[in-house]
C-alpha cells in the first residue's frame, strides 16, 4: 500500500482496548444467523475475564468439516446465531488475576474443548475428551459454569479458562499450526496410543485434511507409511507428504503386496466404504482406527478377519489437553504443520462449498484480521475487578495472501 494506511474504525479500537483490559466486549465474527442460511458478518458478546480466564486476540482459525455439518444443521439443530471454529491460534490479550503459565503477548491456541467437568475419572486422568458429563465444545455448547452458549473461532477474540488454553510454539507458522488443534491431535492421539514408531507399519486411508496430517505425523514418529487412495492422480501428492508406499485401493492386484504388512491403519474417510480391504493389510494383533464419521451407515463389519488374526476395530476422537500440548511441542520439534490455504472472511462461504467438494489441499484457514469491525458501540473498557490490568498485546500477523487454487483432495 502506498501512502498512510487507513486507520481502523473507532469501534474496532474500542473493542481491542476492552479485550486487552479483560473487560466484556463484542467480538467481530462470521456465523450462521438463520437456519439454512449462509455465514454472515455478525457480533458476539465475550465475557469479562474471570480470575482463571485467558483473553485471546485471534489471528487464525482453521476450517473443519465439522463446522459445515454443525452450521448446516446436518448433525441436528443448533441454537442460533452459531459462530463455528475450533482450530484457534492467537495472542494473549489479558489474563485473570489467578492465571499462571500464560502472559500477555504469548502465542496460544484453543482446540475443540473449552471446559469439562474436571472431576470424573477421565478428566482426572487428563482425558477430557472422554469427560463422563460431556465436555464443553468450543462452539454450539452450553457452558455449565457460566451459562453461556459457546461461540467459536471465526471471530476476533475469545475468552477461555486457562486449563483449556495451549501454548503454540513460536517456531510454528501460526496459520499452518491452526489445523493442528483438531486435525493434528485427532491423528496424533491414535498414532501414539497404538504405538506408531520405528519398526511399525502404518496405513492411512484417505488423503484429505486428516489423512495428510496422519502421514506427516506417522513419518515424524518413525513409522513406515502406506497411503491408500481411490485416485491415481494423488499418488505423487502422497509421496510428497512422505508416504513410503502409495496404493490405489480400488486395484485388487495393487493391494496384494501390502497384505498382512501393517500394524495400524488410520481410516480418515467420512463416506461409507467397505473395511474388508484394509483389514486384509493388517498383521496379527493389528488395529484399524476409524476417524472419519460418515453421514450414512457403513457396510457391515465382517468379523472373520478379526477372529482369524486377533484384530481390533476401534475409533478415536480428539486428545486431551496434555496430549494436545505434547503434540504441538512434537510438531515444533519435528517441523510438522498442516498444508493450508488461507482465506479471508468474505471467502468463507465459498471455502465451505469447496471443502464439501473436496477442493482443497489440505486445509482452509481463516485470517481473522479480515473480519469486519463491529458496528455497535463497545461496552465500557474499564477492567472488571476479577481481571488484573494488562498491557496491550503486540500486533497480530499481517493479512496473508491465499494460495492458488489446487486440485481436489480426498
TrEMBL record:
Any one GO MF annotation of this record: zinc ion binding
Write the record's keywords in alphabetical order, separated by commas. Metal-binding, Oxidoreductase, Zinc
Catalytic activity annotated for this protein? a primary alcohol + NADP(+) = an aldehyde + NADPH + H(+)
Q: Which residues form the Enoyl reductase (ER) domain?
A: 36-366
Required co-factors: Zn(2+)
Give the compositionally biased regions (Pro residues): 374-397
Return the broad EC class.
Answer: oxidoreductase
Does Oxidoreductase appear among the keywords?
yes
Instruction: Tell me which domain of life the UniProt entry assigns to the organism this sequence originates from.
Output: Bacteria
PROSITE patterns from the UniProt entry: ADH_ZINC
UniProt-listed InterPro entries: ADH-like_C, ADH-like_N, ADH_Zn_CS, CAD-like, ER, GroES-like_sf, NAD(P)-bd_dom_sf
Residues of the region (Disordered) are: 370-410
Enzyme Commission number, as recorded: 1.1.1.2
Similarity comment text for this entry: Belongs to the zinc-containing alcohol dehydrogenase family.
- Protein name from the UniProt record: alcohol dehydrogenase (NADP(+))
Q: Which organism is it from?
A: Zafaria cholistanensis
Tell me the lineage of the source organism: Bacteria, Bacillati, Actinomycetota, Actinomycetes, Micrococcales
Amino acid at each position: 500500500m502506498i501512502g498512510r494506511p487507513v486507520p481502523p474504525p473507532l469501534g474496532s479500537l474500542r473493542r481491542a482496548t476492552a479485550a486487552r483490559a479483560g473487560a466484556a466486549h463484542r467480538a467481530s465474527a462470521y456465523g450462521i444467523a438463520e437456519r439454512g442460511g449462509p455465514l454472515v458478518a455478525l457480533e458476539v458478546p465475550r465475557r469479562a475475564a474471570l480470575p482463571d480466564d485467558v483473553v485471546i486476540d485471534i489471528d487464525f482459525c482453521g476450517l473443519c468439516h465439522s463446522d459445515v455439518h454443525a452450521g448446516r444443521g446436518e448433525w441436528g439443530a443448533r441454537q442460533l446465531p452459531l459462530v463455528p471454529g475450533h482450530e484457534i491460534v492467537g495472542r494473549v490479550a489479558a489474563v485473570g488475576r489467578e492465571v499462571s503459565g500464560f502472559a500477555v503477548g504469548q502465542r496460544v491456541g484453543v482446540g475443540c474443548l473449552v471446559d469439562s467437568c474436571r472431576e470424573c475419572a477421565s478428566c482426572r486422568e487428563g482425558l477430557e475428551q472422554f469427560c463422563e458429563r460431556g465436555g464443553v465444545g468450543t462452539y454450539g455448547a452450553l457452558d455449565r459454569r457460566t451459562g453461556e452458549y459457546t461461540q467459536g473461532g471465526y471471530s476476533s477474540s475469545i475468552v477461555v479458562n486457562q486449563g483449556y488454553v495451549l501454548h503454540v510454539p513460536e517456531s510454528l507458522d501460526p496459520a499452518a499450526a491452526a489445523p493442528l488443534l483438531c486435525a493434528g491431535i485427532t491423528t496424533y492421539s491414535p498414532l501414539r496410543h497404538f504405538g506408531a514408531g520405528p519398526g511399525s507399519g502404518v496405513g492411512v486411508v484417505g488423503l484429505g485434511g486428516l489423512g495428510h496430517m496422519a502421514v506427516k505425523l506417522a513419518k515424524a514418529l518413525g513409522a513406515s507409511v502406506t497411503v491408500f487412495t481411490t485416485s491415481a492422480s494423488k499418488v505423487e501428492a502422497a509421496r510428497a507428504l512422505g508416504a513410503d508406499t502409495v496404493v490405489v485401493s480400488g486395484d485388487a492386484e495393487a493391494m496384494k503386496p501390502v497384505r498382512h504388512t501393517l500394524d495400524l491403519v488410520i481410516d480418515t474417510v467420512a463416506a461409507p466404504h467397505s473395511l474388508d480391504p484394509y483389514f486384509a493389510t493388517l498383521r496379527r494383533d493389528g488395529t484399524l482406527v476409524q476417524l472419519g464419521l460418515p453421514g450414512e451407515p457403513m457396510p457391515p463389519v465382517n468379523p472373520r478377519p478379526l477372529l482369524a488374526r486377533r484384530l481390533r476395530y476401534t475409533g478415536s476422537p480428539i486428545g486431551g489437553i496434555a496430549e494436545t500440548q505434547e503434540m504441538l511441542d512434537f510438531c515444533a520439534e519435528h517441523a510438522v504443520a498442516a498444508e493450508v490455504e488461507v482465506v479471508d472472511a468474505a471467502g468463507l462461504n465459498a471455502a465451505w462449498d469447496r471443502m464439501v467438494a473436496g477442493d482443497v489441499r489440505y486445509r482452509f484457514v481463516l485470517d481473522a484480521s479480515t473480519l469486519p469491525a463491529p458496528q455497535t458501540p463497545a461496552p465500557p473498557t474499564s477492567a472488571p475487578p476479577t481481571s488484573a490490568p494488562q498491557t496491550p498485546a503486540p500486533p497480530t500477523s499481517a493479512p496473508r495472501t491465499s494460495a492458488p487454487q489446487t486440485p481436489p483432495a480426498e
